[in-house]
Amino acid sequence: MINTDILQGKWKQLQGSAKTTWGKITDDELEQVSGDGEKLIGLVQEKYGLAREEAKTQVDNWFNQHDFD
């Protein structure tokens, strides 16, 4: 599950990882997400033609790959 506070606070560092994971998403689009998990889910859904639940699962899995201390 995405922790919105962490995502927003670490967004600048996480953008590169998001770009690597979802290459169809542009840098400008990632800037517009601004750490908003719902926006990221919607963007993944739109760019990859996924059902919302699948996009949410992908974003949750991506988020959980990172170690936040």
Q: Any overview of this molecule?
A:
Helix content is 71%, strand content 0%. The protein has helices spanning 4-9, 11-21, 27-33, 37-48, 52-64. The protein is mainly alpha-helical. It has one domain (1-8, 26-69).
Radius of gyration: 11 Å
Structural class comes to mainly alpha
Gross geometry:
globular
Quote the average pLDDT.
93
Give the DSSP E fraction (strand runs of 2 or more residues).
under 5%
Helix content: over 70%
What does the largest sheet look like? none
Low-confidence residue ranges: none
Summarize the structure.
Helix content is 71%, strand content 0%.
Key terms for this structure?
5 helices; about 70 residues; mainly alpha
Topology:
Layout: H1 4-9, H2 11-21, H3 27-33, H4 37-48, H5 52-64
